[in-house]
Structures are given as C-alpha cells and as structure tokens.
Specification:
It contains 14 helices and 23 strands. The chain is of the alpha/beta class. The strands form 6 sheets. It has an 8-stranded mixed beta sheet, with helices on both faces. It has a 6-stranded antiparallel beta sheet with strand order 19-20-18-21-23-22. Helix 4 packs parallel to helix 6, helix 5 runs antiparallel to helix 6 and helix 11 packs antiparallel against helix 12. The N terminus and C terminus are likely disordered.
C-alpha cells in the first residue's frame, strides 16, 4: 500500500523513509528539518525557517523504501472513525461506566474518540461547594457536597478495581482550593470554571484506567492541554479557530505513533489570553465532540444521551413525546437554543461547517435508531418537527414615541444590554415600540437576576417607557418553513380553544422557528394541547373567514 507524501505543498506519489529523501534549499539561509514519521494520510511533516523560500525535493527512493513505509502503515490500526460523546448520566456510576465500555466495544468496526462529561450530579455539587466555601461555611471539610464528590469517585474506583491514586491528587487540590475560597470570601467566574473542571478531569481518568484494565488501550486527555483554545468568557467560553489544527495535530499524532483510544474531557478549554481553564457553558461536552469531529475530519459524531434521540417535546411535560428520526443542523440549533436539553446550542456550528452528521442515541437503549442530524432532509411531508418550552423568561415592552422616524434607537437599546452583559432571545418591533425577552441562562441566583433587571429598567428608562413582565415562557415551534401559515393557523385555533392569550410572536431569521410568548402558568397546558394537535390528530375543522381553506391547506 503506497500513499502520497505532501511536502511543502508538493504531493509525491509515495511515502519515503528518511534516508531516501533529500531536501535542498534554493536559498543558502534556509534551514529545514523534517520528521520522517508518515501519518495515515501520507503527510510528511516539515519544520524549519525556510518559509517563503524555494525548496527542491529530490527523491531517490527504492522499491524497498516504499515497501518499508507501506509495512509501517499497515502495521498500525486503522484510522480514527468517529466521536462518541457520553453525558453525566451515562457515566454516573461504576456499573454505568462498565455498560459504556461494553457499548463502545460492541462496535468493533469503529476506532472512536471518546468525550466524557463529569459523573452525574458532580458539576452541580462542585458549583455549590465553591459557593458555600466562599460564603458562609467555616470548615471546608464539613461541606456535604465535597464529601459527596469524594465518596462517589472513591466508591466508583473501588468497584472498578482501580487504584485510588488516580484521583487522590485532584481531590486534595480541590479541597485546598475550597479552603482558599473560604479565606478570600469570593468566587470569581475564573475560579468557578477551575473548580468545575475537576469533574471531567476525574471521570476521564477513571474511565481510561478501566479500559486499560480490561485490555483496551486508552489514553486520557485534558482538553485544555491538547489545544482547545477559547475566548476568556469564563463560564460560557467559545471555541476559537486555532483549536482545530492544534487538536488534530495532538490527537492524530499520538494515534499514529502509539494507537490508543483517546478519552477527552468534555466542556473544558483554555483561555487564549489568560491561559486559564474555561468552560463552554452547560452541555458544552457536545461542542467538544463536534469540534473534535471537525478537527479530525471524522465520519460521524455520536452523542449518547439517556433518551431515544431528539423528541417531539419534553417527555417530562408530555409522556407521549416521540423520537424525531431526522433533523437539519438549523433545526437542531434552534431546538437547543430555545431550551431542548439534548444538545448544546453551539454544537451544530462545527458539524455544519465540516458537513459531519451528528447522531443522537440512547446509551440505555443502544438499538433505538435515535436522531440523525444532517445538512438537509426531506421536508415534503413535514409540518412540525418539535415543540420546545423555555421557562422563567422575562419580557420587556419598550415604548417611545420619539422612536417614530428616528434612527439609532434600536442601537441604543441593544447597547444597553451589551454593556450589562445580558442576552436577548426573541424580538418584535413596531414603529414606536419594541418587545423582547431576556435569556436567563447566565443569571445564577435570584438576587442577581433582580439586580440585573433593575439595572436594565433604570438604563432603558432614560430613553423610553419600560414595562417589565416576569413569569413568562417561550414556546418554540420548530418546523417546515413552507408550511408556516398552516402552522400558525392551527396554533391559534388550538390556543383559542384552550383560552390562552399569546402575548408576543416572532419568527427568526433561520425561518425554521416560530416563537410564542405566554404566561408561565399556562405553558405546560399549551405544549400538551399543541402536541396532541400536531402529532396525534388530523387538522381540526376550522372556521375560515371566506368559507374556504388557505392555499397551503388545499389539495
């Protein structure tokens, strides 16, 4: 098996050993060294100070040289094929870790990269431990959350037959860190991210050690040490472009030199300015998985959850929710952003850019087909795909008669939100008014929410009259844009029948989402009624103003 070698942009028809290749600089000042290690794609890495200068590649390869390189390639395992990401509930105990290991091994044709979240409940316990240590707890050793974390991880290690030294250092450092917070009486976002990172760092070490114990060669990686470069927005950082080549070089290079299943911490990165540990926001392990998929150009990203894929609505609200077999990237992104707990809102971006399918499956029911997310799908028969409920939303009505005919008003409004660090969800405008909802995801306590809302109202009242409405919910209808009139017609019929008043409506630029704002007390009733109407019954008889159905409903 002979492969091409790519050297300084010149592709040669074979891979060559070091002794068979001469690199001659066309400039006396150029110095080029090279690593003869050939990767699975036949790429020979070249290093040196000859950037921008001419290079002549002279090939004196013999058949024996080509054969030797072919033997080297055939002697390694086949290339990495996919990413398998497992959430906290999938690795919540020793038994669950054993089941995940068995699941991975049940796909012998795959050479996966494994991305893990922290063990179930660990992230929340770490956050609470940090808050208690920095506020009112006199003795860190008495924090129940710390005791829970220690007991859970040590018990898991014991049940898996592993050495406790795997995580002893991490737990000791965590306890010392909490003691430091108790002295400073402060928990900054940067410190919070560092504390939270201990969950993924421990779960991946335990799982990698277990795989090695049962004879499956595995290698653990901390994402912040292998090139996951992020913005310095602690608690909600974003992946930067420099991440992709760095991650590819590290994981691919290690795989070629010494094949072992990579076990990578999800959710974590390293700030590009501070070099401090950052987190990617709730559910950020999904973004870790799709980032690795794009970086390595893998065939597929598999996200293993505790449900049978993406569902038509939240099963906790309506038990009759059904799996959605196919979604587009746009639909999945809208579902995630507006509250579906299956995927991280930003996880679709790397997958879309690299056109890599994302498959959502159930680790408790591996035979279920799950949901396949791709660039496009057959929408000819689709009307509504899923219904998502986002609770605890605050709505603002901003009215200014001075807005009529004025430019710059919207810029001033949104500059206020930018200055206060608050995200906006849904927006609707008229000539003299603006209605919008605020994203509660970054607001961590009731006191902080009220404080920020007070600041918003105070700033906006300088330029307009503001009416603040709390206890609202967003119901997002993800569906076929070609059927939007039919969707709205049916929605208003259902809500009118149930006596529900819609306070605001918006259709986003993606054109796959229609959002309705209702009172929170009526939200679950709305979701149930809409699910029954769209997924469990035919279109009800409607009363039309002109006595005939709209064009979309005909034929």
């Amino acid at each position: 098996m002979a492969t091409a070698t790519n050297l300084c942009g010149v592709k040669t028809p074979y891979s060559f050993s070091k002794r068979a290749l001469r690199v001659q600089s066309l400039c006396l000042q150029s110095r080029i060294s090279f690593d003869p290690l050939v990767d699975l794609c036949g790429v020979l890495r070249v290093r040196g100070s000859g950037k921008g200068r001419g290079v002549r590649v002279v090939c004196d390869a013999r058949k024996s040289d080509v054969a030797g390189e072919s033997e080297h390639l055939e002697g390694t395992s086949k290339e990495l094929t996919c990413v398998m990401k497992f959430g906290g509930s999938s690795v919540a105990s020793a038994d669950r870790m054993k089941e995940v290991a068995e699941l991975i091994l049940s796909f012998p044709e795959e050479n996966p990269v494994i991305v893990l979240s922290a063990m179930g409940k660990t992230t929340n316990k770490l956050i609470l431990a940090g808050e208690l240590a920095s506020s009112c707890c006199a003795k860190v050793s008495e924090i129940e959350e710390l005791s829970f974390i220690k007991e859970l991880h040590y018990r898991t290690i014991d049940e898996l037959g592993l050495d406790k030294s795997l995580i002893t250092d991490h737990l000791n450092i965590l306890e010392q860190l909490l003691k430091g917070l108790a002295v400073m009486k402060e928990l900054t976002p940067r410190q919070r991210d560092y504390i939270v990172s201990f969950g993924e760092c421990m779960s991946t070490r335990i799982f990698a050690a277990y795989l090695n114990k049962i004879g499956v060669k595995a290698r653990q990686y901390d994402a912040f040490d292998i090139g996951f470069i992020t913005t310095d927005d602690f608690t909600n950082a974003d992946i930067m472009e420099a991440t992709y080549p760095a991650v590819a070089e590290r994981i691919h290079g290690d795989w070629i030199s010494d094949p072992a299943i990579p076990i990578v911490t999800g959710f974590l990165g390293k700030g590009w300015k501070t070099c401090a540990v950052t987190t990617l926001g709730r559910g950020g392990s999904d973004l870790t998985a799709t980032t690795i998929g794009k970086a390595l150009g893998l065939r597929e990203v598999q996200v293993w959850k505790d449900v049978d894929g993406v569902l038509t609505c939240d099963p906790n609200i309506y038990p009759g929710a059904e799996p959605v077999p196919y979604l587009t990237y746009d639909e999945a992104a809208e579902l995630a952003y507006f509250g579906a707990q299956v995927l991280h809102p930003q996880a679709m971006r790397p997958a879309r850019e690299a056109d890599i399918p994302v498959r959502v499956k159930n680790s408790y029911n591996r035979n279920a087909p799950g949901t396949l997310i791709t660039k496009s799908r057959d929408m000819s028969k689709a009307i509504l795909t899923s219904i998502v409920l986002k609770r605890n939303v605050t709505m603002l009505d901003i009215v200014s008669t001075r807005m009529l005919g004025q430019f710059g008003f919207l810029a001033k409004v949104f500059a206020t939100f930018e200055d206060l660090g608050i995200s906006v969800d849904v927006v609707a405008t008229s000539e003299v008014s603006l209605s919008l909802t605020l994203d509660p995801s970054k607001l961590w306590s009731r006191e902080l929410i009220q404080q920020e809302l007070d600041n918003v109202v105070e700033e906006l009242e300088k330029i307009a009259k503001v009416n603040l409405l709390q206890h609202r919910s967003i119901i997002s209808l993800i569906g076929n844009v070609q059927k939007s009139s039919l969707i709205l017609e049916k929605v208003f019929h259902v809500l009118r029948t149930n006596g529900v008043n819609v306070q605001m409506i918006s259709q986003g630029a993606s054109k796959v989402n229609i959002s309705l704002i209702v009172n929170e007390s009526e939200s679950e009733k709305c979701v149930k009624a809409l699910h029954e109407a769209f997924f469990e019954s035919d279109l009800p008889d409607l009363v039309y103003v002109n006595g005939s159905p709209p064009l979309e409903a005909k034929a």
